[in-house]
Amino acid sequence: MHYIAAGSGPPIVFLHGFPDHGLGWRRQIESLCGNFRVLAPDLRGFGLSDRPRGHANYALLPNLVQDVLSILMAERLSQASIVGHDWGGTIAWWLAMRVPSAVRHLITLSSPHPRNYLRAIADPANSGYFGYVRRFQEAGVAALPTPDELASWVADVDDRQALVASLRQSDPEAVLNYYRANIPLGRVPDIGPLPLI
Known about the structure:
This protein has helices at residues 26-32, 60-74, 87-98, 114-122, 131-138, 147-150, 157-169, 172-182, and strands at 3-6, 11-15, 37-41, 80-85, 103-109. It is an alpha/beta fold.
């Protein structure tokens, strides 16, 4: 796992989503590193982190959750505040459910509770909104926009160029494996009882 580490103090781990990278948290890192130990990885398959083959390597449990724990271990930390956006938020939810002792605070952005997310995907009324998920699962790389298109939402020119460079280093198949490994094709099952957070 490649990650940015800056500052000292209580630890905060920032987990990016799709399409993004660890440096996408640049402004938060700059603002917080005077008082906190800030860690921001390129998630598995993105940017400079490893890109194992096969969608099973991108399952939330155990792989993506273990990646965060590996960063904490590398930093000799037993606990951190976890901030996650999009897929990073989903990873943060599962980390808090499976290893609550590792999570001091949980902050998620654009990432509902996993049960609500899967229910929303399963609801036919939302098919237009979640159509991209099915395209990513079925059409694969052919459905993935170019790095320039994926970064078009970033207003700052330097930040956009950094994201494009990171996306060019990312493995398109690995990026899509998040959708393949964690969102069932066809009928979405209820994931059963989950611990309270």
